[in-house]
Amino acid sequence: MFKEVRTQPMFDWSMIGDIKEGRPNLGATMDVGVYRLMQFTLRDILIKKFSPEIADQLYYEAGELAGTEFCKALINKGNSFPEFIKEVQALLSGLKIGILRVEKADMEKSEFTLTVAEDLDCSGLPMSEETICTYDEGFIAGLLHEFTGTRFKVKEVDCWCSGDRVCRFEVKPEASA
Known about the structure:
Blueprint: H1 19-22, H2 32-49, H3 52-74, H4 81-94, E1 99-106, E2 111-117, H5 134-148, E3 152-158, E4 167-173
Antiparallel strand pairs: 1-2, 2-4, 3-4
Helix pairs in contact: 2-3, 3-5
């Protein structure tokens, strides 16, 4: 299932498996440090084998696929946009991914500024004067594309690692990005 060569993603939500059956004692939760161990060692190897730019591109694309599939599997697509945002906020908080807020919204232009506090990827990391939440950029782009049908470009403009205490994302339709 994972070792065949292909040009298109083949991810399906069923690949996550039956966690209740497979982890009857340990359950669905784990320490954030273990997630970051996987995330940052994988990123380190991608940078070593390719480059920081390619690692970022791959993380963005993986996040976009995850956001798309997350929306397909867990979001009510019959919602209005405000209901969609409320549902995403509840899911991200309930799953302990982060606390999503809409800081600005221009519904006519489909442009948004979103923040994520207590972000799974970076909150609590040391200062590095760079934004690192490329996976989150793609995840937000995938969520919004799947829900609206419009492709978005998402760029992190502030990050815990760059000195902010929330991650801030500028969201614009791809044509105007």
